[in-house]
Protein backbone atom coordinates (compact mmCIF):
# COMPACT_ATOMS: atom_id res chain seq x y z
CA UNK A 1 0.00 0.00 0.00
CA UNK A 2 1.60 3.23 -1.16
CA UNK A 3 1.52 6.55 0.69
CA UNK A 4 0.57 8.47 -2.45
CA UNK A 5 -1.42 7.49 -5.51
CA UNK A 6 -3.34 9.17 -8.30
CA UNK A 7 -7.10 9.09 -8.83
CA UNK A 8 -8.78 9.69 -12.16
CA UNK A 9 -12.35 10.82 -12.85
CA UNK A 10 -14.11 10.31 -16.18
CA UNK A 11 -16.77 12.99 -16.65
CA UNK A 12 -18.74 11.96 -19.72
CA UNK A 13 -22.16 12.07 -21.38
CA UNK A 14 -24.08 8.81 -20.98
CA UNK A 15 -27.21 9.64 -22.96
CA UNK A 16 -26.89 7.24 -25.89
CA UNK A 17 -29.37 4.38 -25.94
CA UNK A 18 -26.55 2.27 -27.39
CA UNK A 19 -24.75 0.81 -24.38
CA UNK A 20 -21.60 0.27 -26.42
CA UNK A 21 -21.31 3.98 -27.24
CA UNK A 22 -21.31 4.89 -23.56
CA UNK A 23 -19.01 2.03 -22.62
CA UNK A 24 -16.52 3.03 -25.30
CA UNK A 25 -16.47 6.57 -23.90
CA UNK A 26 -15.83 5.18 -20.42
CA UNK A 27 -13.04 2.93 -21.68
CA UNK A 28 -11.40 5.74 -23.61
CA UNK A 29 -11.56 7.94 -20.51
CA UNK A 30 -10.07 5.24 -18.32
CA UNK A 31 -7.24 4.69 -20.77
CA UNK A 32 -6.56 8.41 -20.85
CA UNK A 33 -6.53 8.57 -17.04
CA UNK A 34 -4.14 5.62 -16.86
CA UNK A 35 -1.84 7.28 -19.40
CA UNK A 36 -1.67 10.26 -17.02
CA UNK A 37 -0.60 8.02 -14.16
CA UNK A 38 -3.94 7.25 -12.49
CA UNK A 39 -3.90 4.25 -10.15
CA UNK A 40 -7.65 4.43 -9.48
CA UNK A 41 -10.40 5.54 -11.87
CA UNK A 42 -13.98 6.49 -10.95
CA UNK A 43 -16.87 6.52 -13.45
CA UNK A 44 -20.27 8.27 -13.19
CA UNK A 45 -23.37 6.56 -11.82
CA UNK A 46 -25.06 4.14 -14.27
CA UNK A 47 -22.60 5.16 -16.97
CA UNK A 48 -23.77 2.55 -19.50
CA UNK A 49 -26.82 4.49 -20.63
CA UNK A 50 -29.35 7.27 -20.13
CA UNK A 51 -30.65 7.92 -16.65
CA UNK A 52 -33.77 5.82 -17.16
CA UNK A 53 -35.30 6.67 -13.77
CA UNK A 54 -36.97 9.80 -15.17
CA UNK A 55 -39.99 7.55 -15.81
CA UNK A 56 -41.37 4.23 -14.57
CA UNK A 57 -40.99 1.78 -17.44
CA UNK A 58 -40.91 -2.00 -16.88
CA UNK A 59 -39.00 -2.56 -20.11
CA UNK A 60 -36.00 -0.80 -18.55
CA UNK A 61 -35.44 -3.75 -16.24
CA UNK A 62 -34.05 -5.52 -19.30
CA UNK A 63 -30.98 -3.26 -18.97
CA UNK A 64 -29.94 -4.90 -15.71
CA UNK A 65 -27.23 -7.56 -15.57
CA UNK A 66 -25.69 -9.90 -13.07
CA UNK A 67 -22.53 -9.22 -11.09
CA UNK A 68 -20.21 -10.79 -12.14
CA UNK A 69 -21.50 -10.37 -15.66
CA UNK A 70 -20.65 -8.96 -19.09
CA UNK A 71 -19.73 -5.45 -17.98
CA UNK A 72 -17.73 -6.52 -14.94
CA UNK A 73 -15.81 -8.87 -17.23
CA UNK A 74 -15.03 -5.98 -19.57
CA UNK A 75 -13.99 -3.70 -16.71
CA UNK A 76 -11.95 -6.47 -15.11
CA UNK A 77 -10.00 -7.07 -18.32
CA UNK A 78 -9.34 -3.35 -18.66
CA UNK A 79 -8.27 -3.03 -15.01
CA UNK A 80 -5.74 -5.81 -15.57
CA UNK A 81 -4.57 -4.37 -18.88
CA UNK A 82 -4.04 -0.88 -17.44
CA UNK A 83 -2.96 -1.97 -13.96
CA UNK A 84 -5.52 0.30 -12.27
CA UNK A 85 -8.35 -0.07 -9.78
CA UNK A 86 -11.71 0.74 -11.42
CA UNK A 87 -14.92 1.82 -9.70
CA UNK A 88 -17.91 1.39 -12.03
CA UNK A 89 -21.66 1.72 -11.53
CA UNK A 90 -24.17 -0.84 -12.75
CA UNK A 91 -27.86 -1.74 -12.75
CA UNK A 92 -27.64 -5.10 -10.98
CA UNK A 93 -30.08 -7.96 -11.57
CA UNK A 94 -29.80 -9.99 -8.39
CA UNK A 95 -32.84 -12.24 -8.94
CA UNK A 96 -36.14 -12.06 -10.82
CA UNK A 97 -37.86 -8.89 -9.62
CA UNK A 98 -34.90 -7.92 -7.40
CA UNK A 99 -32.61 -5.18 -8.66
CA UNK A 100 -30.00 -2.86 -7.17
CA UNK A 101 -28.06 0.27 -8.07
CA UNK A 102 -24.61 -1.16 -7.48
CA UNK A 103 -21.04 0.11 -7.61
CA UNK A 104 -18.36 -2.46 -8.38
CA UNK A 105 -14.66 -2.29 -7.56
CA UNK A 106 -12.24 -4.11 -9.86
CA UNK A 107 -8.73 -4.66 -8.54
CA UNK A 108 -5.75 -3.93 -10.77
CA UNK A 109 -5.25 -7.67 -11.34
CA UNK A 110 -8.77 -7.92 -12.75
CA UNK A 111 -10.38 -9.52 -9.73
CA UNK A 112 -13.66 -8.28 -8.26
CA UNK A 113 -12.54 -6.64 -5.02
CA UNK A 114 -16.08 -5.94 -3.85
CA UNK A 115 -19.30 -4.05 -4.45
CA UNK A 116 -21.60 -1.58 -2.75
CA UNK A 117 -25.36 -1.43 -3.21
CA UNK A 118 -26.85 2.05 -3.01
CA UNK A 119 -28.54 2.49 0.38
CA UNK A 120 -30.53 5.71 0.02
CA UNK A 121 -33.04 5.44 -2.83
CA UNK A 122 -34.80 8.66 -3.95
CA UNK A 123 -38.32 8.94 -5.29
CA UNK A 124 -38.80 12.45 -6.60
CA UNK A 125 -39.99 14.01 -9.87
CA UNK A 126 -37.53 12.88 -12.51
CA UNK A 127 -35.77 10.51 -10.11
CA UNK A 128 -38.14 7.56 -9.66
CA UNK A 129 -35.52 5.18 -8.36
CA UNK A 130 -37.72 3.34 -5.85
CA UNK A 131 -39.54 1.79 -8.82
CA UNK A 132 -36.30 0.18 -9.99
CA UNK A 133 -33.94 -0.30 -7.07
CA UNK A 134 -34.15 -2.29 -3.85
CA UNK A 135 -32.27 -0.52 -1.03
CA UNK A 136 -28.79 -1.90 -0.48
CA UNK A 137 -28.16 -4.59 2.11
CA UNK A 138 -24.36 -4.71 2.22
CA UNK A 139 -24.04 -1.93 4.77
CA UNK A 140 -21.54 0.91 4.82
CA UNK A 141 -18.43 -1.23 4.48
CA UNK A 142 -15.33 -0.05 2.62
CA UNK A 143 -13.92 -2.24 -0.12
CA UNK A 144 -10.32 -3.30 0.54
CA UNK A 145 -7.96 -2.83 -2.42
CA UNK A 146 -4.24 -2.56 -3.07
CA UNK A 147 -4.63 1.22 -2.73
CA UNK A 148 -6.42 1.11 0.61
CA UNK A 149 -9.99 0.90 1.81
CA UNK A 150 -12.43 2.59 -0.56
CA UNK A 151 -15.58 4.06 0.98
CA UNK A 152 -17.78 3.72 -2.10
CA UNK A 153 -21.20 5.36 -1.93
CA UNK A 154 -23.62 6.30 -4.74
CA UNK A 155 -25.25 9.63 -5.65
CA UNK A 156 -28.19 10.20 -3.27
CA UNK A 157 -26.01 8.73 -0.51
CA UNK A 158 -23.85 11.84 -0.83
CA UNK A 159 -26.41 13.99 0.96
CA UNK A 160 -26.27 11.91 4.15
CA UNK A 161 -23.52 12.61 6.69
CA UNK A 162 -24.36 9.32 8.43
CA UNK A 163 -23.22 7.32 5.38
CA UNK A 164 -19.91 9.15 5.12
CA UNK A 165 -19.32 8.88 8.86
CA UNK A 166 -19.99 5.15 8.98
CA UNK A 167 -17.61 4.56 6.10
CA UNK A 168 -14.98 6.62 7.93
CA UNK A 169 -15.55 4.71 11.17
CA UNK A 170 -15.11 1.46 9.25
CA UNK A 171 -11.65 2.60 8.16
CA UNK A 172 -12.23 4.10 4.71
CA UNK A 173 -9.18 5.91 3.34
CA UNK A 174 -11.26 7.99 0.94
CA UNK A 175 -14.89 8.47 -0.09
CA UNK A 176 -16.03 7.96 -3.69
CA UNK A 177 -19.38 9.01 -5.15
CA UNK A 178 -20.38 7.91 -8.66
CA UNK A 179 -23.18 10.35 -9.46
CA UNK A 180 -25.97 11.24 -11.87
CA UNK A 181 -27.47 14.58 -10.85
CA UNK A 182 -28.64 17.62 -12.76
CA UNK A 183 -30.94 20.58 -13.12
CA UNK A 184 -34.54 20.94 -14.13
CA UNK A 185 -34.19 23.17 -17.22
CA UNK A 186 -37.23 25.16 -16.02
CA UNK A 187 -35.34 26.41 -12.94
CA UNK A 188 -33.78 29.84 -13.24
CA UNK A 189 -30.04 30.42 -13.10
CA UNK A 190 -30.09 31.47 -9.45
CA UNK A 191 -31.89 28.30 -8.36
CA UNK A 192 -29.58 26.15 -10.44
CA UNK A 193 -26.55 27.77 -8.82
CA UNK A 194 -27.98 27.21 -5.33
CA UNK A 195 -28.49 23.53 -6.07
CA UNK A 196 -24.98 23.08 -7.46
CA UNK A 197 -23.43 24.95 -4.52
CA UNK A 198 -25.36 22.76 -2.07
CA UNK A 199 -24.14 19.61 -3.84
CA UNK A 200 -20.50 20.64 -3.69
CA UNK A 201 -20.79 21.98 -0.14
CA UNK A 202 -22.35 18.87 1.39
CA UNK A 203 -19.62 16.65 -0.03
CA UNK A 204 -16.83 18.99 1.01
CA UNK A 205 -18.35 18.88 4.49
CA UNK A 206 -18.01 15.08 4.49
CA UNK A 207 -14.33 15.51 3.68
CA UNK A 208 -13.89 17.99 6.52
CA UNK A 209 -15.94 16.15 9.15
CA UNK A 210 -14.12 12.89 8.50
CA UNK A 211 -10.66 14.10 7.50
CA UNK A 212 -10.82 12.17 4.24
CA UNK A 213 -10.49 12.95 0.53
CA UNK A 214 -13.77 12.92 -1.42
CA UNK A 215 -13.99 11.99 -5.10
CA UNK A 216 -17.26 12.74 -6.89
CA UNK A 217 -17.83 11.91 -10.57
CA UNK A 218 -20.96 13.12 -12.38
CA UNK A 219 -22.26 12.81 -15.95
CA UNK A 220 -22.93 15.71 -18.33
CA UNK A 221 -25.42 16.55 -21.05
CA UNK A 222 -29.15 17.01 -21.49
CA UNK A 223 -31.28 13.87 -21.39
CA UNK A 224 -34.93 14.25 -22.44
CA UNK A 225 -37.86 12.93 -20.45
CA UNK A 226 -39.10 9.85 -22.36
CA UNK A 227 -42.67 10.63 -21.29
CA UNK A 228 -42.49 14.18 -22.66
CA UNK A 229 -44.06 15.52 -19.47
CA UNK A 230 -41.00 17.58 -18.51
CA UNK A 231 -37.99 19.11 -20.17
CA UNK A 232 -35.76 16.31 -18.92
CA UNK A 233 -32.58 16.67 -16.89
CA UNK A 234 -29.55 18.82 -17.64
CA UNK A 235 -26.77 16.95 -15.85
CA UNK A 236 -24.47 19.47 -14.28
CA UNK A 237 -21.09 17.73 -14.33
CA UNK A 238 -18.75 19.62 -11.98
CA UNK A 239 -16.99 16.40 -10.98
CA UNK A 240 -14.38 17.18 -8.35
CA UNK A 241 -11.87 15.98 -5.80
CA UNK A 242 -11.67 17.54 -2.34
CA UNK A 243 -8.89 17.02 0.18
CA UNK A 244 -9.37 16.16 3.88
CA UNK A 245 -9.93 19.81 4.81
CA UNK A 246 -12.49 20.24 2.06
CA UNK A 247 -10.02 21.98 -0.23
CA UNK A 248 -10.83 21.60 -3.93
CA UNK A 249 -7.98 19.77 -5.65
CA UNK A 250 -9.59 19.71 -9.10
CA UNK A 251 -13.01 20.39 -10.59
CA UNK A 252 -14.58 20.21 -14.05
CA UNK A 253 -17.29 22.51 -15.36
CA UNK A 254 -20.89 21.69 -16.24
CA UNK A 255 -20.38 21.01 -19.95
CA UNK A 256 -17.03 19.54 -20.83
CA UNK A 257 -16.25 15.90 -21.35
CA UNK A 258 -13.14 15.67 -19.25
CA UNK A 259 -10.69 13.29 -17.62
CA UNK A 260 -9.05 14.62 -14.47
CA UNK A 261 -6.15 13.06 -12.56
CA UNK A 262 -4.99 14.25 -9.14
CA UNK A 263 -2.56 12.92 -6.56
CA UNK A 264 -3.82 11.79 -3.16
CA UNK A 265 -1.44 11.70 -0.19
CA UNK A 266 -2.68 9.33 2.47
CA UNK A 267 -0.53 11.13 5.07
CA UNK A 268 -2.68 14.25 4.75
CA UNK A 269 -5.60 12.52 6.46
CA UNK A 270 -3.39 11.48 9.36
CA UNK A 271 -2.00 14.99 9.78
CA UNK A 272 -5.42 16.67 9.51
CA UNK A 273 -7.02 14.30 12.01
CA UNK A 274 -4.27 15.11 14.52
CA UNK A 275 -5.10 18.81 14.54
CA UNK A 276 -8.86 18.40 14.05
CA UNK A 277 -9.60 15.22 16.06
CA UNK A 278 -13.32 15.00 15.44
CA UNK A 279 -13.39 11.24 15.83
CA UNK A 280 -11.74 11.53 19.24
CA UNK A 281 -14.26 14.05 20.55
CA UNK A 282 -17.46 12.40 19.37
CA UNK A 283 -20.01 11.96 22.19
CA UNK A 284 -21.08 8.46 21.23
CA UNK A 285 -22.82 8.12 24.60
CA UNK A 286 -25.29 10.84 23.56
CA UNK A 287 -26.04 9.96 19.96
CA UNK A 288 -28.78 7.40 20.45
CA UNK A 289 -31.36 9.71 18.93
CA UNK A 290 -29.72 9.38 15.53
CA UNK A 291 -31.32 5.96 15.08
CA UNK A 292 -34.79 7.50 15.45
CA UNK A 293 -36.81 8.74 12.48
CA UNK A 294 -37.65 11.93 14.37
CA UNK A 295 -37.42 13.08 17.99
CA UNK A 296 -41.02 13.95 18.87
How would you characterize the overall build of this protein?
The protein has a single domain (4-291), classed as Carbon-nitrogen hydrolase (Nitrilase/N-carbamoyl-D-aminoacid amidohydrolase, 4-Layer Sandwich). The protein contains 5 helices and 17 strands. Helix 3 (161-169) runs parallel beside helix 4. Strands 5-4-3-2-1-17 form a 6-stranded mixed beta sheet. It has helices at 19-35, 70-82, 161-169, 189-210, 266-275; strands at 4-11, 40-42, 85-95, 98-106, 112-117, 123-124, 127-128, 143-145, 148-152, 174-178, 182-183, 214-217, 220-223, 233-236, 240-242, 248-251, 258-265. It is α+β, with helices and mostly antiparallel strands. The model has no long low-confidence stretch (mean pLDDT 97). It is an enzyme of class 3 (hydrolase). Its EC number is 3.5.1.53. This is N-carbamoylputrescine amidase. One of its GO terms (molecular function) is N-carbamoylputrescine amidase activity.
Amino acid sequence: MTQTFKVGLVQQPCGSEDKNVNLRASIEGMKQAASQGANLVLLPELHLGPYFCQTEDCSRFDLAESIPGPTTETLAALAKELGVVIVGSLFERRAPGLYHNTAVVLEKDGSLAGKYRKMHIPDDPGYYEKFYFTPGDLGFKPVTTSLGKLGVLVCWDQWYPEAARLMALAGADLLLYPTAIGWNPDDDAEEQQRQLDAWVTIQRSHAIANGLPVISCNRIGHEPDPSGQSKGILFWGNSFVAGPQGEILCQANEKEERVMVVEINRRRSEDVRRIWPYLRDRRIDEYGGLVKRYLD
